[in-house]
Design a protein that fits this description.
heterodimer, A: about 140 residues, mainly alpha, 5 helices, 2 strands, B: about 260 residues, alpha+beta, Alpha-Beta Plaits, 2 domains, 8 helices, elongated
């Protein structure tokens, strides 16, 4: 192989450069910004937190189909509790959009377009904010 | 490539270890289990929702039903008539029933305001032309809109002979006086219309316009139930439908 030294040195420099973020993070032991979520205290989410972390988008998608396409506005959680299928009325009754949803979504560069229609504050306007549990109505 | 016995055993060993690793890796990426989805539809096919409107019974200048609908559904009040959004509104008798217009139309009917809304047709042309399934006929007769799926092609508006559909040419949010957080707004680029308050029906409530009317001009009910108020009213009164000759089977009946 011609220019063996140059080629191998080049490959090593390339590998160092391309893995720079990893070395940089290792040296600084932390990323510059990690999302910090303001989670509601004392309240368990409608499903276990870890499950929600993985599945909230799938749950919301199935909610959308159940409510809009199926006309079913009640979700039965795995613990048997019943909840209104409502993004603003149920989810945002506990969670704050800016302090909760946006934290991870901005960090991950995810831009769900929920909020172009759904209202991000459950108390805006002349609301009679509906209860969480269907039975309470 | 020449593989000797020794090399082959090495490769086979590596491949075996790789296969063993596949399971834990698969488990990590598939730990999300899909949410349980309830039955496809909860809508009863035994019901057929319809509405009767008693022409001429409205109080002069009363807009209670329109206001109630607009407030509950976050219907914007856009001054530009080219951009306006309408779910339920009123129009002159001869515009609502153009085939009944004549030079000698009764004075009591001429320019009489008549409430109009989506007819929730038996054979809705809007649903036939929708390319994405964003609008469809539910089992209980409601012509429903799924704003998530609407791509704003406006075929449905061209298909609807009643002009019951409105397109959001601009962002409607700034034109909504008080937001009702329990109901979403719409976004620029989707078509919207009356959905017979299906979200209220699901909770056992009657449509907002019917509830708001102080004169009992609007009668809502199940057209399949012979004992319902609407069927009793239609059985004892003469009623007409808008452009029934088109074969759309409108489910809004106008009682004369």
């Amino acid at each position: 192989m011609y220019d063996k030294g140059k080629i191998i040195a080049g490959i090593i420099i390339f590998l160092i450069l391309i893995t720079f973020p990893i070395w940089y993070l290792t040296a600084h032991s932390q990323t510059s910004h990690v999302p910090s979520l303001e989670t509601p205290i004392g309240n368990e989410c409608i499903e276990p937190t870890n499950w929600m972390l993985d599945n909230h988008m799938k749950l919301l998608d199935s909610w959308r189909n159940q409510a809009v396409r199926g006309g079913n506005y009640t979700y039965v959680a795995s613990d048997g509790k019943e909840w209104d299928i409502a993004l603003t009325g149920t989810c945002l009754a506990c969670h704050d959009k800016a302090e909760f949803c946006d934290q991870c979504h901005s960090y991950e560069g995810v831009t769900p377009d929920c909020w172009s229609c759904h209202i991000s504050s459950p108390t805006s306007g002349n609301s009679t904010a509906s209860g969480n549990i269907t039975g309470a109505q | 490539m020449d593989v000797d016995r020794r090399g082959f055993i090495k490769l086979a060993g590596i491949a075996f270890v790789g296969l063993l690793a596949a399971k834990p890796i698969f488990d990590v990426f598939s730990r999300a289990e899909a949410p349980k989805i309830a039955a496809e539809t909860e809508v009863s096919s035994k019901i057929k929702w319809g509405m009767a409107i008693k022409i001429g019974n409205c109080k002069d200048g009363c807009t209670e039903c329109i206001t109630a609908c607009d407030n509950i559904h976050n219907v914007p009040d856009i001054p530009d008539p080219k951009h306006e959004i309408k779910w339920i509104w009123d129009a002159n008798y001869e515009e609502v029933f153009p085939e009944q217009d004549s030079p000698y139309i009764a004075n009591s009917l001429k320019s009489l305001p008549v409430l109009v809304l989506c007819n929730h047709c038996l054979k809705p042309p809007c649903c036939r032309v929708c390319p994405t399934g964003a609008t469809w006929k539910r089992a209980d007769g409601i012509v429903m809109m799924d704003y998530h799926r609407c791509i704003g092609c406006r075929y449905c508006m061209a298909g609807c002979p009643y002009g019951a559909r409105s397109f959001n040419w601009v962002d409607p949010r700034p034109y909504i006086k008080t937001l009702n957080p329990d109901y979403p707004t719409r976004t620029k680029g989707v078509v919207e219309k009356c959905d017979f308050c299906e979200e209220r029906l699901a909770k056992g409530l009657i449509p907002a316009c019917v509830e708001a009317c102080t004169e009992k001009v609007l009668v809502f009910g199940d057209l399949n139930d012979p004992n319902s108020d609407i069927r009793k009213l239609l059985a004892t009164n003469y009623s007409i439908q808008r452009k029934a000759e088109l074969g759309t089977g409108p489910n809004i009946y106008y009682v004369i």
